[in-house]
Amino acid sequence: MTQEISSKVPLARSLSLPYIIFYGFGTTVGAGIFVLVGKVAGVAGMQAPLSFLLAGVLAGLTACSFAEMSARFPESAGEAVYVFRGFGRVALARLVGGVVMISGVVSCATIIKGFVGYFQTFIAWPSEVIICAVAAFLTLIACWGIKQSVSVAVGVTCLTLVGLGVVIWAGAENLATVGTRWPELLPSWGGGDMMGIAAGAVLAFYAFIGFEDLVNVAEETQDVRRNMPRAILATLILTTLLYTVIILIAVLSLPRDVLAESGAPIALLYEQMSGRPAHWISVISMLAVIDGGLIQIVMASRIVYGLSKRGWLPAAIGAVSPLTQTPVRATVGLGLIICLLALFVPLVRLAEVTSLCLLLVFMMVNLSLLAVKRKQSSVRGIIHFPLWVPLLGVVACGGLATYQLVMYAGFLSQ
């Protein structure tokens, strides 16, 4: 009788370059952009586009480190593997892998709780029913197969991009005024504007988090040493361009205080520019939320698979089903945990701590690349970056983590 679950079954290597680029878009261009536009504009004003560009550069430093490490070590549980290769300590690798997995679980639970509010504006179902239904739905899709999961994510991402494209089209007239209004977008020589740009960049940075999830489907990617770095860098470049265009339209179309006070700035933009209701923006936001949740549960299950494959967790936990070629046990277990968290745990503070932990993980990946470069010669046929790239990545992530700690300390002291 064929064993239903086997630890020797490999993951299905079925993701091409376009698939993983859209996967990266799906995990980066999520519901956050539908809210962060207003928050960043409230802090940086007309200089908000510069905040997004600066955030893209800061995120890009770490993305370059992930790109090179993904080519050097194309394995699941990427961050944990990179730290192990850099420092040779299993305990540290386990810790990093656990932090990344927990971040995915908490993020997915937070996403599901956010989805409830959107859904209840259309159908007044009890929160508990919606949470259980969505958690079960995401778990089933993630168990179904990696290509099926990513295909769903790609479809939703395309719809999200079409929606944002319609917003850009509606704002094309205001966007065309950049040629005459560009002096308003530049900071003055005083320190106030520069501080606003920096504070806005800290907020905008979190709209770029997601590129790191790509490395955890490395063992399911075709021609991974070539395609994974390309997908990571393409995701960051295209995301930065999209965000910059959206925020440009926003600050050229609406006053700073109006954007800052709006809980749905993209919907408000569309309504103001087109004169039509923006109910469909709410629907797209809901789908973007679901898209992000699906990607997080896929990512977290691949972390469990990668850790168990190396003996850093019990092998049975990450066993792969020969039928679906996915880590079904890990996926179902994580789906249950996500459902329980969404039902019973207030996640706001936990999510803040998780974002801080991710910044520390980014620092560790940058440090690991520095260590690997010192220990190993260049690997032929893969992408390489100079030492100053991961070094600046450490400084950028350390600065953002320090800023968040200071802000959190200020909140606690109130």
Q: Tell me about the biggest sheet?
A: none
The separation of the N and C termini measures 64 Å
Q: Rounded to an integer, what's the Rg over CA atoms?
A: 21 Å
- Helix count? 17
Q: Based on the structure given, which CATH architecture is correct? A: Up-down Bundle
CATH class: Mainly Alpha
Structural class: mainly alpha
- Percent in strands: under 5%
SSE blueprint and pairings:
Blueprint: H1 17-28, H2 33-44, H3 48-72, H4 78-87, H5 90-120, H6 127-144, H7 146-170, H8 172-175, H9 178-185, H10 191-205, H11 224-253, H12 256-261, H13 265-274, H14 279-309, H15 328-344, H16 348-375, H17 388-413
Please describe the structure with a list of short key phrases separated by commas or semicolons.
Amino acid/polyamine transporter I; globular; mainly alpha; 17 helices; 414 residues
Please outline what is shown here.
The chain is mainly α and 414 residues long. It has 17 helices and no strands.
Q: What this model shows, in words?
A:
51% of the residues are buried. This protein has a single domain, classed as Up-down Bundle (Amino acid/polyamine transporter I). The protein is mainly α and 414 residues long. Residues 1-7 have low confidence and may be disordered. It has helices spanning 17-28, 33-44, 48-72, 78-87, 90-120, 127-144, 146-170, 172-175, 178-185, 191-205, 224-253, 256-261, 265-274, 279-309, 328-344, 348-375, 388-413. The protein starts with 16 loop residues before the first helix and ends with a helix.
